[in-house]
Amino acid sequence: MKKYILLFVITFSLGNTAYAQWSKGKGKGYYKLSAWYLQYDQHYTDTGAIDPNATRTQFNTNIYAEYGITDKIDILAYVPFVAVSSQNNQISGTNGGTIQPGESVTSFGDVDLGINYGFYKKGKWAASVKLILGLPTGEDAGGSDGSYQNGDGEFNQYLSTHLGYSTSLGDLPFYAKSYLGFNNRTEGFSDEFRTGLEAGINVFDSKLWLITRLNVVKSFNNGTLSAVNSNGSIFANNIEFSSFGFEAAYHITKKLGISLGFDSAFDGKIIAASPSFSGGIFLDIK
């Protein structure tokens, strides 16, 4: 089987009325326990074409947290404490026999730690800068062929700027925001340019946020790793994609809520050509 492996991109999920704000405020926080799932039997190749592959699944259970240490500075963490990479049995279409048995690897995933600084807020506008450090804590070469990965094995530093605008559409709170970022990668992986847009509207007596987003990642193609590396480094090198996503976050109480969402690449290189799904429960301390 060709070792075209996906890089799954976890989008930090929100779920509260602070979507258009860029700092939580001192002593305030947001905490979320969620699961993320992707199953795919086709992928975008390095030329952007779509090819079939044996059915693979990526799954993780994770915790995401934001906490305001001052009125302008938040610290954040994303911890996938259970991550699973698996492949189904490959079955012969002729006699129904097993051509290749499936495998599964369970491990800790790659942890992200970060800091967010809200440097501007005036009227309906807000701006911030964020630094995220990606730690190589996940399995990057599991299974019999090294392609069962729950991490990429490299330490990266992602710096981004964010600009947001909040207003009302009629009586409904509404926000829109954009971001630009640069992801510096190590261990021979190519650096990345990232950008995106997001918008959300609050309905049902301020209980439900409906959010849509667009994310784009472009590779600088300046790494030294190639598709033939024995450790499956194609998992995360020179990926590119444009993806669309949707999320619904419902407040059961003022502090407690649940969310459901999906994201899917509609164009890409070396990435799964199937949607991913997520769901979780969050606690918003204002």
Automatic annotation (TrEMBL):
Q: Superkingdom of the source? A: Bacteria
Keywords of this protein's UniProt record, alphabetized? Answer: Signal
Q: Where is the signal peptide?
A: 1-20
Official protein name in the record = Transporter
Which species expresses this protein natively? Tenacibaculum jejuense
